[in-house]
Amino acid sequence: MVWSGSWVAERLGVELVGDGELRELLGLALRRNPKRAHLLVSNVLGKHVPQRPSVVYGAGFELGRRVGELLGEEGARNAVVLGYAETATGLGHAVADGLGPAPYLHSTRRPVEGVARAGGFEESHSHATSHLLLPEDPDLLTGDAGATLVLVDDEFSTGNTVLNTIRALHERYPRKHYVIVALVDMRTPDDRGRLAEFAEEIGARIDLVARNSGTVRLPEGVLEKGQKLVAEYEAAQRAAQAPAGLPGGEARATQAPAGRPGGEAQARGDVPPAVPHTRIDLQWPAGLPDGGRHGFTPAHRALLETALPDMADRIAAAVGEHARRVLVLGFEELMYAPLRLGTALEERIDAEVRYSTTTRSPVLAVDDPGYAIRTRLVFPAHDDPADGPGDRYAYNVAGGGFDAVVLVVDSTADTPALHGPGGLVGQLAPHTAHVLLAVVPSYVPSGAVPAGPPPAHTPHRQEEASMLPEPLRGPAFSSYAPDEVGWLLQDLSDTELEAPTEEREEAIQSGGAHYAESLPVEYQPSDAYQDLFKAALDLSAARIARAVGTVTETVLAERGPRPVLVSLARAGTPVGVLMRRWAQLRHGIDLPHYAVSIVRGRGIDANALRWLAAHHDPADVVFVDGWTGKGAITRELAAAVAEFEEADGIDGFNPEIAVLADPGGCVRTYGTREDFLIPSACLNSTVSGLISRTVLRSDLVGPDDFHGAKFYRELAGSDVSGHFLDTVTDRFGEVADAVDAEVKELLTADRAPTWEGWAAVERISEEHGIHDVNLVKPGVGETTRVLLRRVPWKILAKRGAGADLEHIRLLAQQRGVPVEEVDELPYTCVGLIHPKYTRGATGADGRAVETK
What we know:
The chain is α/β, with parallel strands linked by helices and 852 residues long. It has 23 helices and 34 strands. Among the domains are: 53-215, Rossmann fold, CATH 3.40.50.2020; 257-457, Rossmann fold, CATH 3.40.50; 486-492 and 526-694 and 705-746, Rossmann fold, CATH 3.40.50.
């Protein structure tokens, strides 16, 4: 087998001397660096060479175990581990795990405003030299002077970096014992003596634990010779990539012949902004740091270990069962989180899983078996780094034969530059069948200001989010699949909340109770009505699919590239699930989707908004509902969001609602403005994941609770939620062309709300002597609700309306409610609630109110 360092060794006379495993562990490459020509390329670090995650993690964990043996049980309990950015952040974390686990901190090159520096040092030979130490807990490094500090780097060569670190820290936080850990100890005899002298100078014990040892012998003039070789190959690379007749330039390249400059993708304008990829919602636990930049405690590790299986299951589901070779690709300093996701994924899928990360270091790529860096992808920086913008690199990914690449970044790095022309997502696309993106929330310590997006992660939001529970998901709560929707609700399934319809209506209209304080008895449809629902679904599925596609494409065009769907429970939830499916099937994008409660007269669930602000950029949130009637919920949401922003100081939420149907002319983002039968309005919980309407009652919902709802598990035999979704989803393909044409027109059309529906409702209210617009429910959906849940007085039906009213006529017949056909009705039908209980007072605020 050819050693991956032979190409450099032959051309520069570099020798790698050491124990028997050293050549298996290390290869050689050349880098563009004025201080050191060669690069030792580790095969077990997970930086430049894709390796099995278990091998990478196991190498660090075993080193940590050896440190524990050196320190003894008591010494290991008091140890703190410090890793070096960027290459050893994951290695150091694995050492900390093997040691105890022990508290962990790694240096960083990303400044974070508001976090006090606990120290800093220089790495003399590195491409990016300045390191910062930014622990959230200042006692992490100041602690007991008897505690051992364990310093971890991938290689220990001259020892300058470690000496700079120890000197800087020892002056501020002196201690008696330091342990240096590295995969390889490459010091010369002179360097070994210098470390011993330094230990004597500061009066501390310094031990070294390394997996392998050896040295690199460099001939005279190797730096100049190496720089010349790099310049020649880079010039040849540029010339090979330039279009005919033009000077050498940067463009997408194919694999180079053996011994020639390595294959490189470095497009700057030929990649479209919207690159198909699948976004995976990891459901990263609130309050769990993304890594050790600000410290990572044993308690954090316990939380991560609990969450890893579920997160890996979500990745496995997105990868699919047909992939045979999968790469988990981390991002610069973010090495540990993707590494652990990779180890968990290895245990769950049959495919070969590999792991590596992107880097700042420019290294020459040469496609030769005797060279460690065969190919490279080049792309612009996509976070807010300490030393400004510039190129970033992913090595040995192109040509790796990966069926899927799972790219894991923190939210600070999930920027337009990641997705735009020449960005990493676009650079990966030609080299794999499937690009998947998983975003870990960037952890922001208390008192800090995030370096980049999303602005949602401010300290008080992080603190509040850590107190709120994670979203409820199926099958424990609702019959929807767990990735379809997360319910920001509390489970009240064991609470008796149902009351007879007439009793509820009288209590509501007399002011004795709020509509959200109880639930109607779930309507159990007859066989005839069930048959009617199925027939209506078959008849309208294509029309619904077209509306789903239209509203989703409009949202992606105007609120993309990464909208967070937040449906208003419960009518909006099936629509949100369908929108998510459209984005996934048409564009390969996994959109996060949550359901929240809004209560007419009392606003939206503020705790749900706080949770969303802590986990996502509020500007990315798109509220979703099923349809509009007279626009009351549209107005309610706008007022509630404004009140929330003023009270909490959290801004950025756009209160505009995206709906499937907007017959009332109340919104500007819609699938259609026709008033037609949406079958999900025909039933209650059995078409909405078996979830009840939302509940807001002071004895059940405290100030720190989400609003409540019930999961009707006992109705599973009648559940058609999945049937409804699948029937509509099956029609996506046949309406795609029509959707594209319609959206093209809509994006340039005047879609300003007309509020035509509100004017019609006011007129109807007066004409029929109701004098309360809240008892007038316009549209097919709202009329259906009146017949299912309220005390209906009569139904106004547009003369000539056909199949859209069959279920209305059947329900009206069952409840003995007259149906009057009228002309000039802007809706297909309007339901009028019986005004017999309106004697004087209505609701507590002077009007009847209800939950959405």
